[in-house]
């Protein structure tokens, strides 16, 4: 039975029959749903005279979801991207299915993404309310009340420019800028930290409040967040690239065998190696290494660098 069940007209025009009306699902042939993976695994691995004689479908479904979750972090191309305009509060709410970020950038007038680098020089701690004697205060329940906003965050947001942003937004006047004098010894700019020697601004992730906070020179800019999801956020996300199907099936087989008590240890060790090799092959395939692109990069070695 063929896997393509659409005519070219149905594929290119979509359900409404209108070209490029945003209801099409272009490129869907390269992916397979989690339900198909579960069905294929049961057909290939479960039954009499097969690797697994008997297993519940719910067990297979659980390990299939765990496989998608684990593979999404470093194997499957689960990168997502959202774009917003930074509000006056200099923050960006983390997406609902956010796990970790891969890249943060702002877009210039030419549509080029300028990388924003993370900083560890500030944070947004919980601010404890104190009295005039600097002693902690307590509410009626005996708990310590917290301020709505920390003083650290207030000072961070109130800066007219950020000294670590460099040219194009920062103030590098060493004589009249005490902040720079404290961060870099006067006359010692040769020892500047490379991660701070850039002009695109900085950010840090406020994990307590679930937001990303930017330096003041990012205010009003168009910011793009590229992040990793675990692949289980919605039914649309629970798909697997066909290059990783074999690795997913080997992972499910190893996970089921390793959690059973009556399975020989040599069989568990064997499928551990098989699953690891299949995962490595899937990662190589999905890395999209192209020989012509690699050759183009290697041609840079023939350039002469003049001093």
Protein described:
By secondary structure, the chain is an alpha+beta fold. The chain has two domains: 25-77 and 231-287, no CATH class; 79-228, no CATH class. The protein has helices spanning 8-13, 34-45, 57-74, 151-158, 178-183, 245-258, 265-286, 291-298; strands spanning 31-33, 79-85, 91-93, 100-107, 113-115, 117-118, 202-206, 211-214, 222-228, 239-241. Helix 2 (34-45) crosses helix 3, helix 3 packs across helix 6 and helix 6 runs antiparallel to helix 7. The longest helix is centred in the last third of the chain and has 22 residues, at 265-286. The radius of gyration is 27 Å and the shape is extended. Residues 162-170 have low confidence and may be disordered.
| Total DSSP E strands | 10
State the shape: extended
Our measurement of the CA-to-CA distance between the termini, rounded to an integer number of angstroms, reads 64 Å
* Low-confidence region ranges: 162-170
Report helical residue fraction: 25-40%
| Helix and strand element order | HEHHEEEEEHHEEEEHHH
Q: Tell me the domain tally.
A: 2
Radius of gyration, CA atoms, in whole angstroms: 27 Å
Indicate the mean pLDDT.
Answer: 83
| Order of strands across the main sheet | 2-9-4-5
Residue share in β-strands = 5-15%
Largest sheet: 4 strands, antiparallel
- The total count of helices amounts to 8
* SS class: alpha+beta
Keywords:
307 residues; four-stranded mixed β-sheet; four-stranded antiparallel β-sheet; 2 domains
Question: Strands, helices and their partners?
Answer:
Blueprint: H1 8-13, E1 31-33, H2 34-45, H3 57-74, E2 79-85, E3 91-93, E4 100-107, E5 113-115, E6 117-118, H4 151-158, H5 178-183, E7 202-206, E8 211-214, E9 222-228, E10 239-241, H6 245-258, H7 265-286, H8 291-298
Parallel strand pairs: 6-7
Antiparallel strand pairs: 1-10, 2-9, 3-8, 4-5, 4-9, 7-8
């Amino acid at each position: 039975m063929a896997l393509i069940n659409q005519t070219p007209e149905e594929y290119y025009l979509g359900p409404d029959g209108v070209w490029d009306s945003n209801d099409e699902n272009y490129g869907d042939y390269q992916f397979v749903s989690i339900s198909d993976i579960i069905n294929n695994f049961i057909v290939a691995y479960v039954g009499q005279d097969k690797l697994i004689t008997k297993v519940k479908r719910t067990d297979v479904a659980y390990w299939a979801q765990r496989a998608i979750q684990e593979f999404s972090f470093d194997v499957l191309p689960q990168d997502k991207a959202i774009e917003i305009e930074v509000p006056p509060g200099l923050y960006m709410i983390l997406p609902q299915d956010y796990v970790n970020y891969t890249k943060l950038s702002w877009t210039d007038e030419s549509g080029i993404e300028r990388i924003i680098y993370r900083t560890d020089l500030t944070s947004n701690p919980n601010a404890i309310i104190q009295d005039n004697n600097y002693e902690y205060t307590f509410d009626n329940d005996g708990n310590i009340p917290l301020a709505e906003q920390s003083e650290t965050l207030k000072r961070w947001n109130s800066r007219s420019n950020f000294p670590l942003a460099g040219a194009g937004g920062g103030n590098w006047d060493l004589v009249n800028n005490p902040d720079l004098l404290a961060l870099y010894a006067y006359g010692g700019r040769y020892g500047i930290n490379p991660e701070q020697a850039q002009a695109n601004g900085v950010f840090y992730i406020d994990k307590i409040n679930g937001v990303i906070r930017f330096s003041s020179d990012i205010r009003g800019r168009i910011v793009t967040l590229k992040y990793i999801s675990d692949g289980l956020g919605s039914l649309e996300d629970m798909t697997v690239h066909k290059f990783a199907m074999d690795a997913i099936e080997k992972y499910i087989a190893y996970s089921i065998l390793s959690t059973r008590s009556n399975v020989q240890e040599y069989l568990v060790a064997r499928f551990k190696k098989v699953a690891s090799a299949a995962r490595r092959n899937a990662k190589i395939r999905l890395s999209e290494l192209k020989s012509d692109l690699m050759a183009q990069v290697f041609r840079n070695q023939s350039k002469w660098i003049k001093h």
